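Dear Dr. H.,

I hope your travels went smoothly. While you were away I took the liberty of generating a structure for the chain from your last submission, since the lab meeting agenda had it listed for discussion. I wanted you to have the full record in hand beforehand rather than looking at slides cold. The sequence, exactly as received, is reproduced here:
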Amino acid sequence: MGAYTFHISNPILPIKLLESNATVDELIEGESKTWKKDLVQAIFRQEEAKCICNIPISIKGMDDKVIWGLSDKGLFSVKSAYFTDLEKIKHKTGETSNSDQNERIWRKVWRLTSSGKVKQFLWKALNGIPPTRSNLFKRMVVDNSTCPICNREEETALHVLWDCPASVDVWSEEFSPVKKWRRNYADFMSVWSDFHSKLEDEKLHIIATMLHCLWRRRNDLVFEGKFKGPSVLFQLALQGVEAIKLAQEKPRESQLRTTDSLRILWRPPRLEFMKVYVDAALDTK
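The corresponding predicted structure, in token form, is as follows:
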């Protein structure tokens, strides 16, 4: 039937008409399965009584059951609760120009020529969900949130990818597209928004690969005790960019060569001839 809130017109009157522990079924005729309109109108306001009496009542006499009204099947799921919460947040904050900007940012992330694992890492970083010490500490997985590289600040996505002194050394390399950029960003999304608005696609591709390399270096230190210097790390990022570029160009070149060869080899028959294409299989046994 759904959830409704009604105001009782006279709070003293219902006590005289019904017991203090009365339930809704006492407002319904047992045999005919219809509302007791006189009783409903005596308890509730006129407009509310009309709404109540317009609520359909099941004639099958089925037992009441709890349903989740936010899904088609009436069953609760984490997915439906998640999207309901998103809708509530959207209605609460209202639509702003930021939503359009965020949509453009996400569209550009998925259109990057970077590998899938780089894009997936960016998605996690922009949503603030990489397993940094800060996130792990909040979930009581580790006993402190300090950065394992500098041992000074809390390790957030912004810190490990941008603010940590070890990361600053990498971004200060000679061929870095963001060599002299500012450091006072509020979160990683703010940093990436600047990347998105100020850098060309080719440089943004380098930055994305570099971010993934920084995270891999952090994991190498935590789990294997290995640590690469800024120059080595930057060169690895550039090599990764070139490898992806070559991998994406080869299929196109191969396809073009195949198409060209087909165009060269095939010739239409002369007027007095007809071409017939056949296929055959040979059994050597």
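Two observations you may find useful: Residues 29 and 35 are 6 Å apart (CA to CA). The longest helix spans residues 230-265.

With kind regards,
E. W.
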